[in-house]
Amino acid sequence: MEIEKEVKKMALGHEFGAGAACLKCKDKCEGFELHFWRKICRNCKCGLTEHNVQMDTEENKKVGKLFEDTKYTGLIAKLKKDGIPSYNANMITITLPAPAVPKGAPMKSVTYEWAPPVANKHLAVRYIELLPPEKRPVAGTEGAVYRRQQMARQLPEHDQDPSKCHELSPAEVKKMQQFVRKYKEEALGVGDVLLPEEMALVQSAEFGPTGGATGTTSTAGAMGGAGLPQQNYSCQHCGQPMRLGEPAVYAERAGYDKLWHPACFVCCTCKELLVDMIYFWKKGKLYCGRHYGDSEKPRCAGCDELIFCNEYTQAEGHNWHLKHFCCFDCDCILAGETYVMENDKPVCTPCYMKSYAVKCSSCKNPVDPEAQRVSYGDHHWHAEPQCFQCSGCTKCLIGQRFMAVQGFLFCSVECKKKVLP
């Protein structure tokens, strides 16, 4: 019964973002209109994140949904409370003394669209400062735009919520729910930001002393109660040592003997920062949500959803739902039909001839993708006597020496002089 309800309520949110201007296409797009099964705008073919849509509330709902029905995996949350977290990544403004100025100088306020949930605001700011400048989530900057785009790409709603998918059968809904339940139990987590020397104290308090010093100012002592030597303060990703006093990122799924530089806490596939430190841990590697899903299931290149049915097709190096191997322009089914790959998207022959085919410089008609043609620079001709001929004497130039000038073909200088002064 629950699965049947899930199937009935499935519908893409066509009202959300409707009419929003495209930041990429500008006036060429009439406004955002979601395709009925592709995750793109019907007008300009760009995604929702390329349009001027305020996503904060939707992002919070999505991440909150991701972590419901599962224990929040993170050291900080585990020490402070149990249960499901309420996720709120609203803007926060942190006011600190401006760096490298005398005492008593004006305070500096910076608004971040997201910051790590730590009590020490100085540690949160230092974490952000260790990220690449273009990826820092400072409100109104390219770093904030980067975070929002990564949120949509790394954590697609249709990877976790069947109601965001297109026409799943009850059997597919059940398989997807099992898949989501499994990764919540085995892979999903959120990173913790701590100083390595603070982690030593946490481990010492949690597990009890096992020998070695626990001081936070020692540069050569043991790593707290865990008994790990100081030289083990090295990044799991780059192998470089952690600087004393610099925050590190920890992942409970990986074990607290591993740590990462803030800029090194990235997906092993796309190498991008794990947005809001949300990670998936599998076989000793960190993944973002998208690429964890790709490592477990095939993904349809048409609708961008993971495939949970038994039958699907493979074409052009991608996987496709049988019903989604369609022309990118008119959505006609391409199974058994002739098509052309344009910008890595399949296009039927009529749409190709209408929108993408090159024009013959002689007859001005589009050149069929299967027809023989001659190309020279930016000019193209049908490889036929009536098109590929001298503009002066009409001699067929197929297989002959020729000169091309201003889109005209000539067999000799004399013929060129007849047409062009």
From TrEMBL:
Name of the molecule in the record: Testin
Domain PET: start-end pairs: 93-200
CDD domains in alphabetical order: LIM1_Testin (cd09413), LIM2_Testin (cd09416), LIM3_Testin (cd09419), PET_testin (cd09829)
Keyword Plastid: no
Residues in coiled coil: none
Family designation: Belongs to the prickle / espinas / testin family.
SUPFAM superfamilies for the chain: Glucocorticoid receptor-like (DNA-binding domain) (SSF57716)
UniProt key word Zinc: yes
Database matches in InterPro entries: LIM1_Testin (IPR034958), LIM2_Testin (IPR034959), LIM3_Testin (IPR034960), PET_domain (IPR010442), PET_testin (IPR033724), Pk/Esn/Tes (IPR047120), Znf_LIM (IPR001781)
Subcellular location per the Swiss-Prot or TrEMBL entry: Cell junction, Focal adhesion; Cytoplasm
Any GO molecular function: zinc ion binding
PANTHER family given in the database record: LIM DOMAIN-CONTAINING PROTEIN, TESTIN
